[in-house]
Please model this.
Amino acid sequence: MTTSTTEALMPFDDVLAAYDPALGLEVHVELNTASKMFCGCPATFGGEPNAGVCPTCLGLPGAMPVVNGKAVESAIRIGLALNCDIAEWCRFARKNYFYPDMPKNFQTSQYDEPIAFDGWMDVDLPTDDGGTETFRVEIERAHMEEDTGKSLHVGGATGRIHGADYSLVDYNRAGIPLIEIVTRPILGAGERAPEVARAYVAQLRELIVALGVSEARMDQGNLRADVNLSLSPKGSGTLGTRTETKNVNSFRSVERAVRFEMQRHAAILSGGGTILQETRHWHEDTGITTSGRVKSDAEDYRYFPEPDLVPVAPSREWVEELRGTLPENPTARRARLQAEWGFTDMEMRDTVGAGALALVEETIAEGAAPQAARKWWLGELARRSNEDGVDLVDLPITPADVARIQALVDDKVVNDKLARQVFEGVLAGEGTPDEVVEKRGLAVVSDDGALGAAVDNAIAANPDVADKIRDGKVAAAGALIGAVMKEMRGQADAGRVRELILEKLA
Amino acid sequence: MSDLTRSTAAALADRLAAGDVTSVQLTEAHLDRIDAVDSRPDGRGVHAFLQVDRDGALADAAESDARRARGEARGPLDGVPIAVKDVLATRGLPTTCGSKILEGWVPPYDATVVTRLREAGLPILGKTNMDEFAMGSSTEHSAYGPTRNPWDLDRIPGGSGGGSAAAVAAFEAPLAIGTDTGGSIRQPGAVTGTVGVKPTYGGVSRYGLVALANSLDQAGPVTRTVLDAAMLHDVIGGHDPRDSTSIAQEWPSFTEAARAGATRDMTGVKVGVITELAGEGWQPGVMARFQESVDLLVKAGAEVVEVSCPSFVHALAAYYLILPAEASSNLAKFDAMRFGLRVTPEGSPSAEDVMRATRDAGFGDEVKRRIILGTYALSSGYYDAYYGQAQKIRTLISRDFDAAFAHVDVLVSPTAPTTAFKLGEKLDDPMAMYLNDLATIPANLAGVPGISVPNGLADEDGLPSGFQVLAPALADDRVYRVGAALEAIHAEQWGGPLLDKAPELETE
Model:
């Protein structure tokens, strides 16, 4: 029997010739509320382990949960932004299973009564002719739940609980509010299925950022995507057995994981094998998935309504009030920004396609000119993101940093060439742009004393050139400027150097 | 025995206010009484307490006296000592829930009820015995040995709160806190000749009450008189933002309701006798006392009618699905990972192995029985047939109450079908044990308040029986009014409280 761990892959084009893919995405959004979902502990993960805990999020006997109203508000705003209906009355349920990082051995979640349901999001994909194709992704539900603690398995080869010598658990994360957004099966995407998956997650992130309800950093786990995929024989209209690939933590990986699973499923199915309904682990480094636990009927969470909580019943007035706080819809927003920034259609499309829209917007908000912001994000930084295989948003640099570097260029503290070194320094974790300039000694020298000496040296070393300039051939100054720059390791203010040369050889 | 331990809490409050006695004297008197009767070398102590906090109680008492000396007493019960069922979290004081799995666990926080007791200045004498995780009707399921009924040391004190009831019945404490999931305050009250109140669901905070069945649990007063219960209820009740199911409303003074009832005037009060809570399995002596009390209420001016609550016959079945379902989930947290017992098997055990071994060693048979029942009832494929169906019955029972309370102000029944049975008698027969709560369970399923007041001794065995009064949700004042009236009428008839007829306990 063919097992699910086989890594035989079918060429992508062959997959499409024989099968229709069905996608499903489950995205967990960690909210940025001040406190946890059911207690007053800070909802910031990190810091000293097990310092941000109380009887409730530690699951101590007798402690009780209280719903965080701000989390409900965020859930409703996410639901509205995804064109969902908002429940008039819904409950939390207990999802029962044993795991050491889950304090109560049940997760307080929503089950059959989600706060938001029946929505959609239009995902834009670029087309070959420079246009845009819109693909509608239907949202089944968005529901509230709490995060678990975080286990660190020490010893053993895999870093997983099996084979570990011992495990450490940090409950600071336990109880942080999560919104899980679940799509309906996405059918008919065909060859664009991997792109649709990526674009959906990217656009969803953009929406979450615009709503301001989460830090939404995939590399930090604020946004976590699970990718469901199944194949069915082409044109059959059926749904095949699906696999669920967990914690795919970048846009790029979402696309790759879909592609990989399509190719893997097809290889198994075409060989007469069957797909095991299972959880799969995504490996960022090798770009493959491996088998996790098998999901069978034996897994029974024994859901029942959480008796310690009363139903959540948002009034229609409140819901409408929250609707009024929604950011503008993405299409209108893009049109507005394009006009404001004066981008061409092509520039705008590339910006959106690179997942840089929000980054560019934030950079402009930090003071950079639109073209400068675009230039850095789609140039230097896009190159780095490709090289490192991480999404732009996950690069260790903020829009404020980018704006600051541009300001350094504008103020002639550095030139474009030096700016690239500043980027390198910031990305390498050497500090803020100013710190990098300082530490690396990158500032352009415009001080006449230092420049004057270098100019004198250049004139002395190139008497022929100096004579030409004296004779009025000003264009020859370039050669002397080059010599000065060389001596000053590129850090001279070229304009001032030129002035000095012309003054001295007048 | 000191007269200090025989006094009611209300009388002690008056004496403290008058300066006749200090809280330290009172607290010491009760601690001495506990020393004298609770544990004996021959094993025939009452064993109402699992923990006695002599130092803590005396320190609290000294503070209370100091406050009173400064004229800053916090309320009528400031300085009156109390015992707390070991199912409520007490900061710095071990809390076991009668289970080995929590042996030695010292909570880092106080239950809201405990906080309110402390804020009102009541010294906490200690923690009382109970069936493990409040599962039982006899306190025999305590992992630390049973409590004995002060009326007959060979008999059970009821359960699960047998410790709290026995503590007040044996004059070890003037007041105690119990919790009632299906009768665990009222049934022990009935079989020990004491008063027990289950408030309206949401009337008293459950924060810090280690949940048995969250949708049924309610903490309440365990006392010797109705007035004492009302005074205690006034201290512990009211909205708590830490408990989402707690009711946000102002409550009337239950103390005033009890005082009003003590006038014995029942004119205009409509009383319904529940048809279904009588018949086969009900001890004749219990029924005889019950009928006499109904007649006494009529004499006092009440209008009595018979009321049928047809769904009550299904209450026990529904209860034994809902309770185990919730309990099976609640008890999952006892896994050795963060607190309590940890049993580490030989070899190189996984976390799961440790959980399994700990739960196997730490839970008693009754707990395991209910975890299995509840897990089964919630399983996919069975949920609708069991848990779902039980919830429907629950709705029907609430409707029975609604229909009944459309015609009557209160409903009455015997609290328990029988008087106290012998220790060990029903231990191997869970169904017989469960039947003890037949009359008390409907109130928990519907969330309505109920009281059990002493109702005289059954002729067959000379043991106490109880009279239950139920009222609509939020109308807890009615159970105090009717309960206090019946208590006053009885006192007149009996020439004093029922507990005067209890045998003297041998002291050391």
User: Anything to note?
Assistant: The interface with chain A takes residues 88-89, 95, 97, 102, 105, 107-109, 111, 206-211, 213-215, 241-245, 325-326, 328-329, 332-335, 337-339, 350-352, 355, 375, 378-380, 383, 387 of chain B (CB under 8 Å). Chain B has a mean pLDDT of 96. Chain B has 17 helices and eleven strands.
